[in-house]
Structure formats: structure tokens, C-alpha cells
Specification:
Layout: H1 5-17, E1 23-27, E2 33-38, E3 51-53, E4 66-67, E5 70-74, E6 80-88, E7 95-97, E8 101-102, E9 114-116
Parallel strand pairs: 6-7
Antiparallel strand pairs: 1-2, 1-5, 3-9, 4-8, 5-6
Length: 120
């Protein structure tokens, strides 16, 4: 199946709209919270060519701390919508971090985030 650009945009927009006022929770391999950043009330701009770019994401200015294994995308009503792999930069994770080790009280920032709906 090959999706048209119109379909890709609609599917991408439907998904990212679920994240409005939601969070991205970084967790250990045992699912303990390491840090939580918050999406804006409109989490992403409109998709173009199947790609939506996040609006400003609020930092976690006082992380719990730990070793990040994965991240969970959570909607405003605490519904989990996706789990993403995490790695250091260049490690191939869905989310790539400067370091997967976060200290207690550290600030965790997300400088950019895109969601892509592939054509096939």
C-alpha cells in the first residue's frame, strides 16, 4: 500500500493531536520515571508531507534522575499512546540524547521533535 500525501498528513495530524497538553515521560528499563517534559496545548504544527514538528516543549527542570531506556508519549488524560526507544546521539534510537544518564535535579530539554507518517 502506498499512502498519498493527503492521507499521510491526516494520519499524522490525528496522532499528534492526541498529545495536546500531554507529556513525554523518559523511563528506565523498569518503567520508573526519570524525567517528564510537557507538550504545549497545541503540541505540533500541521503536518506537511507526512511530517509534523513539535511546538515548544516545556523542560523538566528537576528530573527524578536515572538511566533512560525509553520514552512514553502520554496524552492530557494520562493515556499512553506510544513507546519510543532512546539512545545516545548516533545510537539509532527514536529519541537520541546527549547522555542516557540523567542526574537527580538535572534539567531535561527537548530541542526538536518530529513525527513522521511514512508513505508505506
Amino acid at each position: 500500500m502506498q499512502l498519498t500525501t493527503v492521507s499521510r498528513n491526516a494520519m499524522c495530524n490525528a496522532f499528534v493531536d492526541l498529545l495536546n497538553s500531554g507529556t513525554i515521560v523518559f523511563e528506565t528499563s523498569g518503567d520508573a520515571e526519570v524525567a517528564t517534559c510537557t507538550f504545549a496545548s497545541t503540541a505540533f504544527g500541521a503536518a506537511s508531507s507526512g511530517v509534523a514538528t513539535a511546538e515548544t516543549i516545556t523542560d523538566d527542570s528537576s528530573a527524578t534522575g536515572g538511566t533512560v531506556d525509553h520514552a512514553v508519549l502520554v496524552g492530557a488524560a494520562s493515556t499512553e499512546f506510544a513507546e519510543l526507544t532512546c539512545s545516545v546521539t548516533g545510537g539509532g534510537g527514536d529519541i537520541q540524547l546527549t547522555s542516557t544518564t540523567i542526574g537527580a535535579g538535572d534539567t531535561v530539554s527537548i530541542t526538536s521533535l518530529t513525527m513522521t507518517m511514512p508513505s508505506s
